[in-house]
Amino acid sequence: MEHIDPEVMKRFDTRSSRPCEFCKELDPQFQIRATVDQMVATSRKATASAHLTEDGYVRHRILELRQMTARAPLTAA
Ligand SMILES: [Zn+2]
After folding, report:
1. pLDDT: is 76 or 33 the higher one?
2. If we measure between CA atoms, which residue out of 13, 15, 54, 25 comes closest to residue 37?
3. Torsion, CA 45, CA 50, CA 61, CA 28, rounded to 10
4. How does 46-62 read in b/e, with b if 16+ C-beta sit within 10 Å?
5. Average confidence (pLDDT) over 2-16
6. What is the pTM of this model?
7. Could you read off the pLDDT of 14-63 as tens digits, one per residue?
């Protein structure tokens, strides 16, 4: 019994994508994202633009910005 949603499978290919390491590490809500929003293209580094979806891209950018903001007071001091 397979429980794979054919609609999801149409939108991305699991052989050419993988979960984003960056988001996986930094986003506490990573596991509740839609699977396709977790994925980056296998051939790319774990960057925002490697994400397969707009939502994945935006979430990645938010995490990057949050990191930069968190670091700012330390580097300024
Ligand atoms: Zn990411």
Report:
1. 33
2. 54
3. -80
4. bebebbbbeebbebbee
5. 63
6. 0.73
7. 678 999 999 999 999 999 999 999 999 998 899 999 999 999 999 999 99
Cα(14) to centroid of ligand 1, in Å? 16
71 Cα–ligand 1 center, Å: 19
For the chain, domain boundaries: 7-72
HEC letters along 15-27: HHEEECHHHHHHC
Q: How big is the chain by its Cα radius of gyration, in Å?
A: 15
31 CA distance to ligand 1 centroid (A)? 12
